Fold:
Amino acid sequence: MTINYDMHQHDDVALVFRALAEPARLSLVHCLADGPHRVGELSTHLGLAQSTVSAHLAVLRSAGLVAAAPDGRATLYRLAHPGLDDLLHAGERLLTPDAGGSQDDGGPHGHHAGHPLQDRGPGTLAEPAGSGPARSTSDSSATVRAS
Structure:
């Protein structure tokens, strides 16, 4: 039996995964899953320079993962696909197979609960405060090309 792999959109899917293959962009997706945000708000949440956040958002937008709308003099960013957050959670479950399925309680995802100042509980990927490597906030760490 011959399987036709040409019917799959591997090139397009690879573009999506390349855009997500940066921890800061994954963090941006988690923040945007809580609702629309401006660059300044995302910068504060993530501890990254606004220019770095803007560059990461540009990569996510070019992959079709994030949408933008004017909001006065600012721009409001949101997830273009509501299921994107579920994709990230599926990836996390791959790393914690002993978690036994979804830990979603049906309520809001509360992704800011994973902030280093808060404990997300057993079976999650969040590190306790002070246990992970320091994250640079300089623009020199923002190589954000998706290719």
Helices lie at 10-20, 23-33, 39-46, 50-62, 84-95. The radius of gyration is 17 Å. The chain is about 35% helix and 10% strand.
